[in-house]
Amino acid sequence: MRKLYIQTYGCQMNVHDSARIADLLRETAGLELIETAEDADVLLLNTCAIREKAQEKVYSQLGRWRPWKLARPDLIIGVGGCVASQDGAAIRERAPFVDIVFGPQTLHRLPQMLRDLASEKRPQVDVSFPKIEKFDCLPTPRASSATAFVTVMEGCSRFCTYCVVPYTRGRELSRPVADVLTEVSALAAQGVREINLLGQNVNAYRGRTADAAAERVDLADLIRAVAAIAGIERIRFTTSHPMAFSERLIDAFADVPQLVDFLHLPVQSGSDRILAAMRRGHTVADYCTKIERLRQVRPHLTLSSDFIVGFPGETADDFAATLALVERLEFDHSYSFIYSRRPNTPAAEYPDDVTLNEKKARLEQLQHRLNHHAQRISRHMIGTTQRILVEGHARKDMNQLAGRTENNRVVNFTGTPDLIGNFVEVTITEALPNSLRAQLTSPVITASISE
Ligand code: SAH
Ligand code: SF4
Ligand code: F3S
Fold first, then answer.
1. Is 313 exposed, middle or buried (0-12, 13-18, 19+ CB in 10 A)?
2. 8 in contact with ligand 3, CB cutoff 6 A
3. Helices (H) and strands (E) in the chain, counts
4. DSSP alpha helices (H): ranges in 145-246?
5. 306 C-alpha to ligand 3 centroid (Å)
6. d(Cα 234, Cα 423) in Å, to the nearest integer?
7. Closest residue (by CA) to atom 5 of ligand 2?
């Protein structure tokens, strides 16, 4: 079998897309996925354009592969993902040795592109946005552990002023309800117990049903339908936008026990002025009200977020408001970034008078506080009983097992391999910076829901 290597950058959707590409090329092109780039016949880069740094990584990686291509002209190099979508054929101007350029919406055409490359002996570029045919062309996913991603919608129509995603992934497009449920059932039949519903703006999901005249199904109802599938004991979703975070979704948190006690809800800034300049469409108070409502139905909910520091025009007061919000809501492990100018986005034209040094200092201060809160949440977990899904062996110690709590913390504990793929109860004994240690208290929990 010829060998395939995929290097992935970016979000969970990209990681998931890479897995789908591997499934597809195994079934249709006889390519076997391997872990070492040096031994591959086909090298693919699945790229991210969200910040300049992510984009530059692509070209430096291609630079490292260039001599390999010179030495072995039959080596095939392909670039996909959001940089491919954004730069299209221009990728070949900077890296003329690239054979294939495909976008997030054309990855299902890779088998044909590989065939055309072989027969026509010329580079293939297709970064178009052909509706949703992609999902009909992908094979049933193969589960690799007890937890799995399922893409339910793709793209984004919100156009925050700093963001490339609506341009690289296209507008919001939801998969039909039946397709999503068929995929979840197929995964459950392979032993999957936890489903992570994926979308760039996942709570804007509006899925068609068989009845074309019927109202579309929203994320809250989709979650209920997924929860009804035998074997699915945990449900997550990523990433939501505060504007589309509806009362109906809060109701789902109230009455669907499989929904985890955890929510990632990006807020970006604690200043109304900056939120308006970002065109987020909500105020800080709107965000806090939603969280308070949610905490009424889920008192133990942990909340995480994304923050952008140093958005054009961000003053010391604006930044102080972000810090105040962090103190008020107590976020768990969150992502924070220095604003990066993206070509062709509205914010790229905004005057930006904050120095890079100042931005770095703000980022450090914010991360220090976020880290403080995350560590505090971890410490408070010591002595508690947690239900975790055992995903496999611990990374650093084969005699240990690793699983995740509802709030996404990795827990390492001593146990036998037959527990992998099951839920167990553990008592947390120690909090480390990036994981927890625990002791097994109750082996396999077989009841479908423990609450
Ligand atoms: N669709 C999701 C996530 C999009 S990208 C959402 O709207 O929440 C993930 C995160 O990257 C964003 O939440 C934002 O914090 C960050 N991000 C996006 N564009 C950025 C830019 N130009 N500079 C810095 N950070 C950015
Ligand atoms: Fe980007 Fe905003 Fe869409 Fe998120 S909601 S993907 S930040 S445009
Ligand atoms: Fe990056 Fe595209 Fe995801 S820009 S964050 S890979 S949607």
1. middle
2. no
3. 14, 20
4. 165-168, 177-189, 219-227
5. 14
6. 10
7. 158
Answer yes or no: is the C-beta of 236 below 6 A from any ligand 3 atom: no
Going from the Cα of 240 to the center of ligand 1, the distance in angstroms, rounded, reads 12
Confirm if 401 and 413 have CB atoms less than 8 A apart.
Answer: yes
Can you spell out the DSSP letters for 1-12?
-EEEEEEE-SSH
Q: What is the pLDDT of residues 47-90, one digit of tens each?
A: 999 999 999 999 999 999 999 999 999 999 999 999 999 999 99
Tokens of 322: 């972000």
**Structure tokens given for 26:** 């195994």
Q: Is residue 421 within 8 Å of residue 193, measured between CB atoms?
A: yes
pLDDT band (50, 70, 90) for residue 448: very low
Structure tokens at 284: 């800080």
Q: In terms of DSSP H, where are the helices of 137-230?
A: 165-168, 177-189, 219-227
Mean pLDDT for the chain overall: 94
Tens of pLDDT along 323-372?
A: 999 999 999 999 999 999 999 999 999 999 899 999 999 999 999 999 99
Which single residue is written with the structure tokens 């220095």?
338
Say how far apart CA 436 and CA 160 lie, in whole Å. 36
With beta carbons less than 8 A apart as the criterion, state whether 121 and 139 touch.
no
pTM of the predicted model over 0.85:
yes
Cα 321 to its chain centre, rounded Å, is 27
